[in-house]
Amino acid sequence: MTPGMSPGIDLEHGGNLPAASRRFNIPIDQWMDLSTGISPWSWPVPALPQHVWQTLPYADEQLETAAADYYACDRAALLAVPGSQYALQYTPALLRTGTVAMPRRGYAEHRAAWQRAGHHIVEYADGEALRHLVETGAVDHALVINPNNPTGEVVAAQRLHLLHERLRERDGWLVVDEAFADVTPGISLASRCPAHGLIVYRSAGKFFGLAGLRLGFMLAPRSLLEQLHAAMPPWLLSHPARWIGAVALSDEAWQAQQRASLTRDAEQWLRDLRAAVPALAFTGTSLFVSGVGDAAYCEALYQSLGRRAVLVRLFESIEGQRILRFGLPLPETRGLVLHLLREAVEECR
Fold first, then answer.
1. 49 within some domain
2. pTM of the predicted model, to two decimals?
3. Structural domain of residue 230, as residue ranges?
4. How confident is the model at residue 3 (pLDDT cuts 50, 70, 90)?
5. Residue 112 domain flag
6. Residue 274 sits in a domain of what CATH number?
7. C-alpha to C-alpha distance for 108 and 5, rounded to whole angstroms
8. Within 13 Å of residue 317, how many CA atoms lie on the same side as its CB?
9. Residue range 151-188, pLDDT digits in tens
10. SS3 sequence, the chain?
11. Which among 84, 151, 160, 343 has the fewest CB atoms less than 10 Å away?
12. What total number of domains does the chain contain?
């Protein structure tokens, strides 16, 4: 095991209201769920034409064309998948087995997939540590979650360009999970695809507030996409998902409004949390805010909020610290959430 690496992999995810309901004995319909990074506003899905429900989901290019325009990438560089989770769990097995740099804290499904495929994992604490690993040739591949979930760290696109070039020189791969990048497209590497040695994952669930649609994309060289596509069973994406995705990805006016709303509310939410919970050190993204602090305190605050039917995401303890991730509440419920949060903080004193 790499020094400092967590002994286990926490594959619990946010949004599990049935489990929270059982744990705290509170009916599901009474909860306020802030445990995910899914936008509180969803793209307004219209009534679907009847033929959408009656049509088998053969690729008709509408979804792929809309996605290529949205991500500013070559159409040949893109494969639609049932959520970026699908792509990330199978991709490591398609790459040369070696040593991969991975964030110490990050979406745990990545770690599980790379380990399952036989790769050796070396952790990095931040972007500078990642740069050192790549520059010194200590790793064959590198995984970057940008922005990172849950730490919120962002690695600038120019730095990622340099990492990609170094890894490609050694026939390695840079894999970038951009599930939360829609509000800040300037950090994305999607427009560089297809470039040898580069894989980008994108999700339609977070920014568009359509997690239940199970729609995502893998951007990569065509040869790699063909390998993944060959392993996919037919009709893995539903036709309603394809139809809704194509229209949502083409709705530029709504996207601009969504970016403005998320930016404004996330900035306010970050200020509110810093004032309400001074014991935690908060960092913010456009879709969630994370607080780092003493492990025991984070656990106590999580439990206290749970007793008040407020669900947040509690991450594992590393070196005595844990993270609490707070998704964005709707503006009309923010006041109540803050009231309950202040009560919980007072209870944990």
1. no
2. 0.94
3. 55-251
4. very low
5. yes
6. 3.90.1150.10
7. 12
8. 9
9. 999 999 999 999 999 999 999 999 999 999 999 999 99
10. CCCCCCCCCCCCCCCCHHHHHHHHCCCHHHCEECCCCCCCCCCCCCCCCHHHHHCCCCCCCHHHHHHHHHHCCCHHHEEEECCHHHHHHHHHHHCCCCEEEEECCCCHHHHHHHHHCCCEEEEECCHHHHHHHHHCCCCCEEEEECCCCCCCCCCCHHHHHHHHHHHHHCCCCEEEECCCCCCCHHHCCHHHCCCCCEEEEEECCCCCCCHHHCCEEEECCHHHHHHHHHHCCCCCCCHHHHHHHHHHHHCHHHHHHHHHHHHHHHHHHHHHHHHHCCCCEEEECCCEEEEEEEHHHHHHHHHHHHHCCEECEECCCECCEEEEEEECCCHHHHHHHHHHHHHHHHHCC
11. 343
12. 2
- Does 144 lie in the same domain as 177? yes
How many other CB atoms are found less than 10 A from the CB of residue 79? 21
Distance between CA atoms of 298 and 221, rounded to whole angstroms? 42
CA trace torsion 265, 271, 277, 280 (10° rounding): 100
Residues 200 and 145: their CA atoms lie apart, in Å, by: 10
Residues 149 and 117 in one domain: yes
Mean of the per-residue pLDDT values for the chain? 95
Say what the pLDDT of residue 10 is: 53
Is position 12 within any domain? Answer: no
